[in-house]
Structures are given as C-alpha cells and as structure tokens.
Amino acid sequence: MKKILSYWVESFSSQNAKKGIDLLVPRIEPAKKFFPEWLKNIDKFYDGSNKIRVLGWSSNVGVKYCNPFTDTLTSGYMLSLHCDILVEKDQENQKISWRHELVPVTTREFNLIKDIPSPSNFGFFEYAWEVFYRMKLPKGYSALFTHPINRFDLPFFTASGIVDADYGMGGGGVSFCIDKNFEGVIPAGTPIVQIFPFKRDDWKSEYLQNTKEIVWNPRKNISGWYRKNVWKRKNYE
Q1: Whole-angstrom Cα distance, residue 101 to residue 88?
Q2: Mean of per-residue pLDDT scores for the chain
Q3: What is the pLDDT of residue 17?
C-alpha cells in the first residue's frame, strides 16, 4: 500500500489567499520531474567513445547510468519557486527582489544565524524559502527537508532539517544562503527544497567480526550488475 504525503493551504488563511496559493504556487511534485538538464546532456560513455569498452577494472559507462547517483535526484518530493528572484550585489552586500505578490523569501534575524557555518564562498543563512503548504505524513513517519541533492549547480544552498510530520507540520520557512559571486535571476520553477519521507525506527550499529560471505560480484557484467541484481525501483507520485 502506498503511503500518502498530504498537504494543504493553512486553514487560517483567507479564502482569497487560499485561492491565490492554489492558482499561483506550484504543487509539491515528485523529484523525478526536476531531473537536471546537465545530467541529461552528459555523454553515455565518459571516454568519448560511441560504444561500451572495458577500462581497467571498470567500464566507460558514465554517471548518468549510476543508480546510486540518479536515485538521489529522483527520490522524494520537491518544492519549487513560484516566481523569478533577482539577485543583485554591490561591493559588500547582495540584495534579492521579485515582482510577485506572494512573497517567496523571508529573512532571518542576523543574531540567529551569524554563528552557523555556511559553504565556502556563500553568505550567511540569512534567507528562508517561504513554504506555503502545510503537510502531514502517516503515523510513525518523519520528513527530511534538504537542499536538492547533488544539485551543486544551483546558486544557493538550502539548510537541512527533520520534521516529525505525522502530527501535522505547521508553518515555518527553510533557511538558505546564496553564492557570494552570483548575480542574476533564479527562475520560477527552480527546485529549492527536496523532501524525503522516512519511517522512524530505532537503530543500533554493530561491528561483525564473523559474517557470511556477501555475494557481491559486479565484475560478472561489463556494466549494470548492480541494477540487475541489487537495485530496487523507488516510486514517488
């Protein structure tokens, strides 16, 4: 049975606000709909060949056919921008602006975020993406909210957080910082937050000294052993 991620516009919003959000804000969509163009355009064979070859202990099949990598891009759900955001900068500061009546970004108090490290060449986590929807997961489930995984091409970096959302998730933005060197438009439709629902379980790590042999035999095939023997399809709708 498929699990359901339910979401809605906050109940205390005015009817006009609800109608505006319904019409103007993108729905929460499966992450697979945001598969990046740069990965689509990468060559199938990374050595410039037009056919499969053996290179040492591996093959020349490129990263677009690496299931562990592509699974990060197609799993879970995505929040995306409902309008363009313009980033301008002067010698010391960056300024962001937009034309839309629904505010896409809010700011954090500087004293709240000044001691949080950010990636190299990025500013403080002084901004927050506005989340217009409230959501609820099945009993026993939480959600990881994070930067779109492996999307280092984006000119911002979204902070991560885990919400126990089976009670119902209330309001709040998701913090992010901007590349200090970026100036230009972050277009509407850009993915900004990836959501991974997961079941809460109790875990314990355990080192095993004596284990049965794991049948891991990737060199049996020139390419694709993992996909044929280990990989399971993940389904998010």
Answers
A1: 20
A2: 92
A3: 66
- Backbone torsions φ then ψ of 21, nearest 5 degrees: -65, -45
Distances (CA, A) of 163 to 105, 137, 140: 20, 10, 12
Residue 145 β-bridge partners: 161, 195
Q: What domain range includes position 145?
A: 6-200
Here the CATH number for the domain that contains residue 168 is 2.70.40.10
Q: How many domains does the chain have?
A: 1
**Average pLDDT rounded to a whole number, residues 25-31:** 96
Residues 6+ away with beta carbon under 8 Å from 85: 96, 97, 98, 104, 105, 185, 186
Closest C-alpha to 133, from 100, 105, 172: 172
CA distances in angstroms from 146 to 17, 51, 143, 157, listed in the order given: 27, 37, 10, 9
Q: How far is Cα 188 from Cα 19, in angstroms, rounded to an integer? A: 19
> What confidence category does residue 11 fall into, taking pLDDT thresholds of 50, 70 and 90?
low
Residue 29: strand, helix, or coil: strand
Amino acid residing at 57: W
Q: What is the pTM of this model?
A: 0.93
Distance CA 67, CA 73 (A): 10
